[in-house]
Amino acid sequence: MSNLLLFNKPFNVLCQFTDEPEFKAQRQTLADYLDQPGFYAAGRLDRDSEGLLLLTDDGLLQQQITHPKTKQPKTYLVQVEGTLTAQAINQLSAGVKLKDGMTRPAKVRQVSEPGWLWTRNPPVRERKNIPTSWLELIITEGKNRQVRRMTAAVGFPTLRLIRTQIGKWKLGSLKPGASSLLKDQCI
Fold first, then answer.
1. Using an 8 Å Cβ cutoff, are 108 and 136 in contact?
2. Catalytic residue among 32, 35, 46, 48
């Protein structure tokens, strides 16, 4: 039986249970929020990103979730600096050339800031003369810091990044730092 833990990773939390000794007292890890022996992250989420992280106690399920061949779609809510253009959305949709190659095409749509979204601590920096835009971005690969690099490549740096879904699993109403255990899970 495979158990899966859905966790809403807060901003500034490392996606691991331990930290290097020199940073131990300075940075939060998953151990500050979860007491689930035998569970391991199925994928990563950068320290400065928020949202859905899957953890499992089954190595096979972990591999199925993370292996590039399964192409599990990952959905992100992204706040970018500037007023998003149709050209940028088209570029993101077609795939973006990064230093490590082209990204696969993404599903992209501009959205309004969702009413359900929690306040980030610390808040995103705001500039009075520079507006921000929100988009939903769905990718099927996981290059290092891919979403941030994609939006920057089309001229709209990411200010805030929240993963809301991986495959069939959704963040739902989980608050930052909260988790939900699902039993008997498979791809």
1. yes
2. 46
57 is catalytic: no
Render pLDDT for 16-33 as a digit per residue (tens, 0 to 9). Answer: 988 888 776 788 999 999
Read off the pLDDT of residues 54-91 as tens digits, 9 standing for 90 and up. 999 998 889 888 887 788 899 999 999 999 999 999 99
With 70 as the cut, is the pLDDT of residue 150 above it?
Answer: yes
Cβ distance 176 to 109 under 8 Å? no
Q: CA 185, CA 90: separation in Å to the nearest integer?
A: 36
What pTM value is reported for the model?
0.93
> How deeply is 150 buried, as exposed, middle or buried, from its count of CB atoms within 10 A (0-12, 13-18, 19+)?
buried
- Whole-number Å distance between alpha carbons of 7 and 17: 13
183: buried, middle or exposed (CB in 10 Å: 19+, 13-18, 0-12)?
exposed
